[in-house]
Design the sequence.
């Protein structure tokens, strides 16, 4: 039986996430400091370090939920409504998405998505992969992020259903070719 999360910890993490988003939009990622984040969240610096080692860890945690939908395309190719909802969420929060998909956060996002996809790949039987699973995961993650980045930027204009279908098809194609698995 798993213990319920401590309400104080949950409240502190929520405050840190809210402060992170606010400061990210106001200052950009490079200018963020743990001190400013802690002050904005109304917690001590040591409290931040009780929850996260680095700002990158906070960023990684903040994208775990949304990125799970993308990672699921590896073993659940028919994401449909959930994927379109995620894309619409990105579009509705495009100011944040543009900051996150740019430098210096893009590599952190790619790494977080790669880890989620690699976990899915470990659960899938790969017949005869051409390259190591971690490299397959990275290639899928980069493809997905590139397509989402182009869609959010509106270059070219695309419908969310079309982007969702392209994400499914692209992930499926990479899985088929690189992982040696035919869907």
Sequence:
């Amino acid at each position: 039986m798993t213990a319920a999360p401590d309400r104080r910890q949950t409240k502190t993490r929520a405050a840190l996430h809210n402060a992170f988003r606010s400061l990210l939009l106001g200052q950009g990622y490079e200018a963020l400091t743990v001190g400013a984040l802690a002050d904005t969240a109304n917690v001590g610096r040591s409290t931040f370090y009780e929850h996260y080692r680095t700002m990158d860890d906070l960023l990684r945690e903040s994208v775990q939920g949304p990125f799970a939908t993308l990672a699921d395309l590896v073993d659940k190719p028919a994401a449909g409504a959930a994927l379109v909802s995620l894309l619409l969420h990105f579009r509705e929060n495009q100011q944040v998405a543009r900051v996150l998909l740019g430098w210096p956060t893009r590599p952190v996002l790619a790494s977080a998505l790669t880890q989620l996809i690699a976990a899915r790949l470990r659960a899938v039987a790969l017949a005869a992969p051409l390259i190591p699973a971690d490299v397959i995961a990275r290639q899928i993650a980069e493809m997905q992020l590139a397509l989402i980045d182009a869609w959010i930027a509106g270059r070219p204009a695309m419908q969310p259903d079309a982007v969702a279908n392209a994400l499914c098809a692209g992930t499926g194609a990479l899985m088929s070719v690189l992982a040696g698995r035919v869907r």
Observations:
- The CA atoms of residues 121 and 133 lie 7 Å apart.
